[in-house]
Specification:
- The complex is a heterodimer of chains A (about 80) and B (about 140).
- Chain A has about 80 residues and is mostly helical.
- Chain A contains two helices and two strands, in the order ββαα.
- The termini of chain A are far apart.
- Chain B is mainly beta and about 140 residues long.
- Chain B has a single domain, classed as Immunoglobulin-like (Sandwich), CATH 2.60.40.10.
- Chain B has no helices and nine strands.
- A five-stranded mixed sheet of chain B has the order 3-9-8-5-6, with no helix packed on it.
- In chain B, β8 and β9 form a beta hairpin.
- Classes of the chains: A mainly alpha (about 80), B mainly beta (about 140).
- Chains A and B meet through β1 and β2 of A and β6 and β7 of B.
Chain lengths: ~80, ~140
C-alpha cells in the first residue's frame, strides 16, 4: 500500500449551484378544509348510491326486506 | 429526469454576494400555544438535479401539505427552468427557495410536505405541531 502524497494547495473558489429564491408572486396556491374533502367524497359516492340504489343501506333495512319476503311467501296460497 | 436531492424547511435563507448562501433555522416542527395556528413565513429549501437532456425545460414544482389523516390542506406550485450545467454533459443542479406563506395547521399532530415535480412525488418532508399545555 502506497502512501498518497498530497500537495499543498488552497481553495480558489467553491462550486455552488445557482440559487433561485422564488418570489411570492410566482407561487400559486389553493387552501382546502376538511369540509371540502368530505363534500368531494360525498359527491363521488352519490353516483355509486344511484347505481346500487336497490342495495339496502343498513342491516335493519335488510332484515325488514327479508321479513317482507317471508310474509309474502306465507300469504301465498 | 429531475430529482430532489435535498428538501428541508427553514426559517430563512441568507444569500451572499458571491452566490453562496446559508440555510438558517432548519426545523421539523413547531411548538405553539394554541391551534388552529397559521405560520406566516417559512422557506422550503430544495436542491434539484436534472439530466443534461432536460436543460432549458420548465418543470412544475408542487408542494402539498397533508395532515395526519392524509387530507390535503394546502397546494402550492410554481415553475422552475433547468439551468445550464457547469460542464457540458454533466447534470444540472439548481437550488430553490420556495416560500411557504400563512401555512395552516388546524390541529396538533403530524403533517407532511410532499414535493412533486410534474406528476411525480419526489420527496416527503415530515412536520409536527405540538401544543404547549398552558401556553395560552
Amino acid at each position: 500500500m502506497t502512501e498518497t502524497e498530497y500537495v499543498k494547495a488552497k481553495i480558489i473558489a467553491v462550486t455552488v449551484p445557482p440559487l433561485r429564491v422564488v418570489p411570492e408572486s410566482e407561487v400559486q396556491e389553493e387552501t382546502f378544509t376538511r369540509g371540502d374533502f368530505e363534500g368531494a367524497l360525498d359527491r363521488a359516492s352519490r353516483p355509486l348510491k344511484g347505481r346500487l340504489a336497490h342495495v339496502p343501506y343498513s342491516s335493519e333495512d335488510f332484515i325488514k326486506e327479508k321479513k317482507e319476503e317471508v310474509e309474502l311467501e306465507d300469504n301465498q296460497p | 429526469m429531475v430529482e430532489v436531492t435535498v428538501a428541508v424547511i427553514a426559517q430563512e435563507l441568507d444569500v451572499h454576494d458571491d452566490g453562496t448562501f446559508d440555510i438558517l433555522g432548519v426545523l421539523t416542527g413547531l411548538r405553539v400555544s394554541a391551534v388552529p395556528y397559521e405560520e406566516p413565513h417559512m422557506t422550503l429549501f430544495l436542491s434539484f438535479s436534472a439530466s443534461p437532456a432536460e436543460v432549458g425545460r420548465e418543470r412544475r414544482v408542487e408542494v402539498h401539505l397533508l395532515d395526519a389523516d392524509g387530507f390535503l390542506m394546502r397546494k402550492s406550485w410554481t415553475t422552475v427552468a433547468v439551468p445550464e450545467p457547469p460542464h457540458p454533459g454533466s447534470r444540472a443542479d439548481l437550488n430553490v427557495g420556495f416560500p411557504l406563506r400563512n401555512v395552516p395547521f388546524v390541529k396538533d399532530g403530524d403533517y407532511s410536505f410532499h414535493i412533486f415535480v410534474g406528476d411525480d412525488e419526489k420527496r416527503v418532508v415530515p412536520f409536527h405541531i405540538d401544543v404547549e399545555k398552558g401556553g395560552e
